[in-house]
Amino acid sequence: MSTPILEVNDLKKHFPIRAGFFGGTTGYVYAVDGVSFSIAKGETLSLVGESGCGKSTVGKAILRLFDITAGQVVLDGQRIDDMAPGTLRPMRRRMQVVFQDPFSSLNPRMRVRDLLAEPIRNFGLAKDSADLERRVGELMDRVRLPRDAVNRWPHEFSGGQRQRICIARALAPEPDLIICDEAVSALDVSVKAQIVNLLQDLQKELGLALLFISHDLAIVEHMTHRVAVMYLGKIVEVAPRRQLFAAPKHPYTEALLSAVPVPEPGAARERIILKGDVPSPIKPPKGCRFHTRCPYAFDRCRQDEPELRQTEDGHFAACHLHDRPAAENPLAGARGAAVIAHH
To answer: Per the record, what is one GO cellular component (predicted)?
Structure first.
């Protein structure tokens, strides 16, 4: 694997809970509580998990949309989480974002030409007005929209077309990394596929790294290189796509994969229904955070927090089951492969 374009080391973001308007802090929401991963140049890493697990907070923390509580964010060898705003500004050009709702992401009072020209002007990338127009036209070509559409307003486009404009705007500063925060979840199924294919083509053409934040495992399986699974503010499993989908090494991942629709009629699948609700991030459980819902939990899970460690080449999981003999580990061997038989 090539040198990472992004490294996240023990990232934490705890939001204070305040009593009243002028009251003091009464506790914290442990939204992200010690997350580490890296993304290589040209790679797609998908960050998946249930709503509220902290995956979007990770994306916003990397973008410095708020200050982090602890940890480090390193972009191409330079630490950016503690950079002063003036120093950070040129680094911002190298990482861009595509949000979930394309309509609220676009200024309704700006034509598409101005929406795409703004980041080019902000970072001083165009030599003159002719160069600016050329760049805007090329961006429209890249996202497969007609060039004459630059004179239209955001409300004149469909949802899929608006998301293409958002992608074009993210490409305008010529970034190395794009964070896609649920970038296709608001779109129709057929449009989702088109946008995913567009992102893959752009990645190959431009060598982009993508952090793809999603809860849609069917989409993730189609487009990613590696997958990181989050649960209650922590990453519980990281693996190459094929390994993770064929043989998950964490009970939470196993349950998530069992819920993915099987495309082939008659294909075997064992659906795993988790008991209970996700615990509150204000007071996470002691030990393994998943033990309150885990079908395989034993005494150690309720006391000791498992570390994310390698179970096989490139495959990491935070689960005490892997310290037990293979005969006592329900995730060892071929069990994971039986969860989704069509892989």
So the answer is: plasma membrane
